[in-house]
Write a structure and sequence with these properties.
Number of helices: 20
Largest sheet: 7 strands, parallel
Radius of gyration: 24 Å
Number of strands: 15
Distance between the termini: 39 Å
Helix content: 40-55%
Strand order of the largest sheet: 3-4-2-5-6-1-7
């Protein structure tokens, strides 16, 4: 039969779908924002229509797992395939989801279970839930951001490889298959099929594709005298690890993967938008600084609920005007960004996963990145995190806390220096007039309420001679006002106007809550 897409594919998506749809195992090595989730969903629908599978287990990073059932499937699953049963594992399955998923009266429907990849490191409950699903249905199993299983010795990788054997077909998705080393692909391909690369042992694989220090050198330099000498990769005069036979490795991988970068996608629009969900933390976290001082960071959910309760009280007393509704919205936004509410935007920090998620996303990006944020505390934290991860010279800042001359130096360095990769800025300060065409990616760590600021900041990296366009990513806390703010701005709407049109802030937050 001819496959009828729910959403018309780009040319490269259609190619990937045609090549992989009938295969038992395949790697979608497609750069971020090139639409690999659609290819997976279409492939699952195709195999479902052929009677090969009736379920899909998606394992994805925290936040992305929820997006699969709330965003990707509703958008791309074809209507002709019927209404799928979608479930999200959040430490457990909700009773109504579990009842629907395993309801014998709905056995002919397509079943989808999305799970958080981090849970497979230490949660027996997660492994048991996945195994039950895989044994109950004929499943395709997919690992989104498969670079997270690059370590063959980790518990997470071992558990997922074992579970993959229960699936009828398998897929891995990532734009960065080898973030640190060409050897990263071993575990990913072992999940797909341990025979594809021709090596059962990681030690043999490593020895074949990397130059290793002789055993006597390892013993002498590490004082190691036990059995099984560690395999240490040799380095060249520049300190770079030395690999070999990489052409052979690529030839082994080629029949089983589709690789494309955004620059190679000729029919993509100049602006590509995406969101990444970052759930609010629900428990406090203990941190220890270099002096040994212990600090307890409260959870975001606790303070978010407190502000929500106050909004309800104000609404009941008739004191919630549009003006103070925007003020309350600002407080909620400070919390989703990781800080207690304060008038100056420099509140005390909360337990917050957003910096880690930002780093995860950046790991899969090519080229330079602009990171926009609203609050001073966020900007300072972002710059600190990036410098710790990529070096001090990697990051420049452009906001009200930076001297005017230093701002100009920062802009020039970002445009001209290969050492500077990140431009951390406030939209109100840097969103106007600046030429930042060196960037291929833009992250909105948080947004302000101005549509004009958003439109101006989006245009900073745009250039006519950039065929790959620019990818825009919004970080947002699901079930919060973040979703409403991002949807309004991406839809080119003013926040105040949306509040009025939708019945005020109380109606807005009720729709955002689960």
């Amino acid at each position: 039969m001819d496959y009828i897409h729910q959403v018309k594919p780009w040319a490269h998506q259609q190619s990937a779908f045609q090549i992989s749809r009938d295969l038992d195992e395949y790697a979608l090595y497609m750069e971020q924002r090139t639409g690999k989730s659609k290819v997976l969903i279409d492939s699952a629908a195709w195999q479902y229509s052929k009677g090969r599978i009736d379920g899909l287990l998606v394992v994805a990073p925290n936040g992305v797992d929820e997006d699969w059932v709330n965003k990707y499937f509703p958008e791309h699953w074809p209507q002709w395939a019927g209404i799928p049963l979608l479930a999200h594992w959040e430490g457990k399955l909700r009773k109504k989801d579990e009842a629907a998923l395993y309801d014998s009266a709905r056995a002919t429907a397509f079943h989808v279970l999305a799970m958080n990849i981090e849970a497979f490191s230490s949660s027996p409950k997660a492994r048991a839930a996945a195994e039950k699903f895989l044994r109950q249905f004929r499943c395709m199993m997919a690992i989104d951001e498969a670079s997270m299983i690059k370590d063959p010795s980790s518990n997470r990788t071992k558990h997922l490889i074992k579970l993959g054997k229960l699936a009828v077909s398998r897929r891995i998705l990532t734009g960065t298959p080898s973030t640190q080393s060409p050897l990263d692909v071993f575990a990913q391909f072992k999940f797909l099929n341990p025979h594809l690369l021709g090596f059962q042992s990681y030690y043999a694989f490593k020895a074949h594709f990397a130059d290793l220090l002789p055993e006597e050198v390892v013993r002498r330099t590490t004082n190691y005298y036990g059995r099984g000498v560690p395999q240490i990769i040799a380095k060249d005069s520049s300190g770079r690890a030395q690999y070999k036979n990489l052409g052979e490795l690529q030839a082994l991988m080629d029949p089983h993967c589709f690789r494309i970068t955004r620059a190679e996608c000729g029919d993509m629009p100049p602006k590509v938008y995406a969101t990444r969900s970052v759930p609010l933390t629900t428990a406090p976290r203990e941190t220890v600084d270099l002096t040994g001082k212990v600090t307890i960071l409260p959870s975001q959910q606790h303070y978010y609920d407190r502000v929500l309760d106050q909004i309800v009280v104000d609404a009941e007393h008739g004191t919630l005007t549009v003006l103070n509704a925007l003020s309350r919205l600002l407080r909620l936004q400070q919390i989703t960004g990781g800080f207690m509410p304060s008038d100056d935007g420099c509140g005390l920090p909360l337990n917050n996963d957003r910096p880690d998620v930002m780093l995860q996303e950046i790991e899969g990006m090519r080229g330079k990145v602009i990171i926009w944020a609203r609050f001073r505390a966020e900007l300072e934290l972002i710059a600190e995190v990036l410098r710790l991860a990529y070096g001090f010279q990697s990051t420049v800042e452009y906001h009200g806390g930076i001297d005017g001359n230093d701002r100009q130096v920062a802009r020039s360095a970002f445009q001209e220096s290969e050492r500077v990769r990140f431009f951390v800025a406030q939209q109100a300060s840097g969103g106007y007039g600046l030429k930042l065409t060196a960037a291929d990616n833009v992250i909105y760590y948080s947004n302000d309420f101005s549509l004009e600021h958003r439109l101006q900041s989006e245009d900073r990296p745009i250039a006519l001679d950039k065929p790959q366009g620019v990818a825009y990513l919004d970080l947002q806390a699901p079930g919060t006002v973040d979703e409403k703010i991002v949807a309004a701005l991406q839809g080119k709407k003013e926040i105040a106007g949306v509040l009025l049109d939708s019945g005020g802030l109380t109606a807005w937050i009720k729709r955002g809550k689960k």
